[in-house]
Amino acid sequence: MSTTTPRPGTSARTVLAPVLLGVVALALWQLLIVVFEVKPFIVPGPLAIGEQFGSSFGTVLQGAVVTGGNALVGLVIGGVLGILFAVIAALIRVIDELSAAVIAALAVVPIVALAPVLYTMFGAGAETARQLVAAIAVFIPVYINTLRGLRQVRPVHRDLMHVYAASAWQLTRTVTVPGALPFIFTGLRIASSLAVISALIAEYFGGPVGGLGKSITSAASSSNYPLAWAYVLGAILVGLLFYCVTLGIEKFATRHYKPST
Amino acid sequence: MSDAPAASAAVEVVGVDKIFVGKKKATVTALENIDLTVAPGEFVSLIGPSGCGKSTLLRLIADLDAPTTGAITVFGKTARQARIDQEYGIAFQQAGLLPWRTVAGNIELPLELHGVAGPARKARSAELLALVGLSDFAESYPDQLSGGMQQRVAIARSLAESPRLLLMDEPFGALDEMTRERMQTELVRITAETGAAVVFVTHSIPEAVYLSNRVVVMSPRPGRIRDILTVSLGSAAERTDQLRENEAFFENVSRVRELLHGEAPVGIRGVETR
């Protein structure tokens, strides 16, 4: 099992193995539902969920667009602010020292708990509160990872830029920020899942109807369990999409970042 | 040599000490009473065991560190002013290429930082890539090159602004022996073509002898110049690979070795002068 060098067929195996495991798990799940006659309000079978997902695909997709849209706005705002603040903190030490405690405090706040407060601030009819919740959730991992990445400048590069009499801004633009890209993307990848989860959970606390979170609660409260689960499946797919897209961008952007001499 | 006016020397080091202050105010004397003059176009190697301060001396000349006492001038300017005016190019043991830039992008980096226009940068990098024999790799990324090729890119980058002085800190230290000899031959050719003075830090005695007009032998703790040996192996054109088999080459190698080890054992000297 422990192969040290990738061989042809290994990539096929890494894809095939989890897919196979998933299929087996689903089959087992369906089998248990049938054998023990489990009631749908406890948990519906995968076939029932799949059927419901197919028949109400349009509404699930609409919900996914709303929730995914909020998550995306949050990811962009939180990501841009996180990177920007990290660059400033890396350039100006005082700001870093001043904000360290605030960031640490912000990191332990359950961000979604802010949702009810934000709804009253921005009005329950707007998506703003949800986007803000997602943005705050995104900000922290992006800020922390970016700042760590910005501190990874190799001594040889620092010497070189000193020799070139480069300004602080030139150093930041040509060496520090590009060098921090792998860290920035790791932060964004972690944050992408957080953005979707935060945007979704924020819907539980109020605001306009239409998103996946609201749809899950309303389907569950009207005892339409397969539909509720179909929405959950939609939420999983949105999260997966965000994760895969950020992972893909990360792989592409850092494709030449192998340790070189 | 000390009669020469300061402005004409590529590097002039006068009475330099370097003392590092560590934790709990423990001091380490890295360099003591260093005097050294490098003429324009001259190739000078600094050789010595680890801890003899040869890299520190190079860093002082490059203004990457400041001497504790004494003065360093580069083409008659202070080391700091010479750095700001880009009077020298530098190459380190690590190539230190930026992995997110292409080979051409790396070579153009100093030009870009100093405001050279795009077309002029392109022309210069093409010229330098031809000089180091990597014209086919302009659009490659560093991770696609071997260690020796990366080091050639680093040398091309150090030459980007046509400096009259090259500072090199064990640039071939991480390369295998065969690549190393090929790079040495290329460096002799390149310095002959550019006419630049070179201060070259190395661990390798044959390397120092093969490349240099003069070899500065240093001793450790505290770092001092033990002796300076003038090597006369002819002009760059005469220094081909055959030189490595030459009697005069071996003679110089054993002279440097004797200087490095202080008194050489008599037996070895007898063998090598045969």
TrEMBL record, chain A:
Q: Provide the membrane topology annotation.
A: Multi-pass membrane protein
Name by which UniProt lists this protein: ABC transporter permease
User: Among the entry's GO cellular component annotations, what is one?
Assistant: plasma membrane
Q: Which residues form the ABC transmembrane type-1 domain?
A: 64-246
Question: PANTHER family from the xrefs?
Answer: ABC TRANSPORTER PERMEASE PROTEIN, ALKANE SULFONATE ABC TRANSPORTER-RELATED, MEMBRANE SUBUNIT
Q: Which residues cross the membrane?
A: 12-36, 71-91, 98-119, 131-150, 180-202, 228-249
Task: Tell me the Gene Ontology biological-process terms attached to this UniProt entry.
Answer: transmembrane transport
* GTP-binding listed as a keyword: no
Which terms are listed as keywords in the entry? Cell membrane, Membrane, Transmembrane, Transmembrane helix, Transport
Broad class of where this protein is predominantly found: membrane
Q: What SUPFAM superfamilies is this protein classified in? A: MetI-like
Q: Which family does it belong to?
A: Belongs to the binding-protein-dependent transport system permease family.
**Localization in the cell:** Cell membrane
Q: Does the UniProt entry include the keyword Membrane?
A: yes
Q: Which domain of life is it from?
A: Bacteria
Known InterPro entries for this protein? Answer: MetI-like, MetI-like_sf
One of its Pfam families is: BPD_transp_1
UniProtKB/TrEMBL annotation, chain B:
* Stretches assigned to the ABC transporter domain: 11-245
Q: Name one Pfam family in it.
A: ABC_tran
**SMART domains per record:** AAA
GO MF, one term, reads: ATP binding
Q: Which Gene3D superfamilies match?
A: P-loop containing nucleotide triphosphate hydrolases
Keywords assigned by UniProt, alphabetized? ATP-binding, Nucleotide-binding, Transport
PANTHER family from the xrefs? Answer: ABC TRANSPORTER ATP-BINDING PROTEIN, TAURINE IMPORT ATP-BINDING PROTEIN-RELATED
Q: What is this protein called?
A: ABC transporter ATP-binding protein
